Amino acid sequence: MLHVPAGVFVMTAHFEGKRTGVVVRSVQRCAQEPPMICVAIRKGHWISPLIRDSHHFGLCKITGTEKLLIKKFAEPNRPRDGDPFDCMPIERMVSGAPILSRALAVYDCEVARHLDLEADHEIYIGKVLAARVSPGVPDPPPLISE
Questions:
Q1: Where are the alpha helices (H) located in 26-128, listed in sequence order?
Q2: Which residues is 40 bridged to in the sheet?
Q3: Is 73 in contact with 10 (CB distance < 8 Å)?
Q4: Has residue 110 been placed in a domain?
Q5: Could you give the CA distance from residue 49 to residue 103 in angstroms, rounded to a whole number?
Q6: In 32-146, which ranges are E strands?
Q7: Which domain CATH number covers 55?
Q8: For the chain, how many structural domains are there in total?
Q9: How many angstroms separate the CA atoms of 59 and 127, rounded?
């Protein structure tokens, strides 16, 4: 969970043969036991129905230098046609959400809460079902002593 508070993340989801992802920059730990993550995404994104129907999402931390991934999953005007994961190495964990194989850290989550705010973003709180950190990725310094 140390890798959550900072960085660029791709949130992923799949349902009934459809899969997509979106770059998100607002990610935060919100519980330690059980481990939970809070993600804010722009309201109305096409990933929302997939998360709603599957009740799961993946969260993949990438470097800011991953220009192709950032462009492929960036909002706002990426076309929805086709599968954005074609020709891209992916894996699956517990939920089956697509996980980018080259991500620095990944979190496979089950939706615990969805908050539809009176704002331009909505919030998903996910219970972490599985996680991994790529070999050689150093632990970031702690935010505060707990």
A1: 47-54, 67-73
A2: 26, 123
A3: yes
A4: yes
A5: 24
A6: 36-42, 56-62, 90-91, 99-100, 105-116, 121-133
A7: 2.30.110.10
A8: 1
A9: 12
The pair of structure tokens assigned to 103 is 């991500």
Q: What is the pLDDT of residue 142?
A: 59
For residue 3, being part of any structural domain is answered with: no
Give the pLDDT of the chain (146 residues) as one tens digit per residue: 555 566 789 999 999 989 999 999 789 989 989 999 999 998 888 899 999 999 999 999 998 888 888 888 886 555 566 788 888 899 999 999 999 998 999 999 999 999 998 999 999 999 999 999 988 776 665 555 55
Residue 61 domain flag = yes
Distance, in Å, from the CA atom of 74 to the CA atom of 38, rounded to the nearest integer, reads: 19
Name the CA dihedral angle for 55, 133, 83, 120, rounded to a multiple of 10 degrees. 60
CA nearest 83: which of 18, 24, 23?
A: 18
What pTM, to 2 d.p., does this model score? 0.86
User: What does the block give as tokens for 104?
Assistant: 């620095």
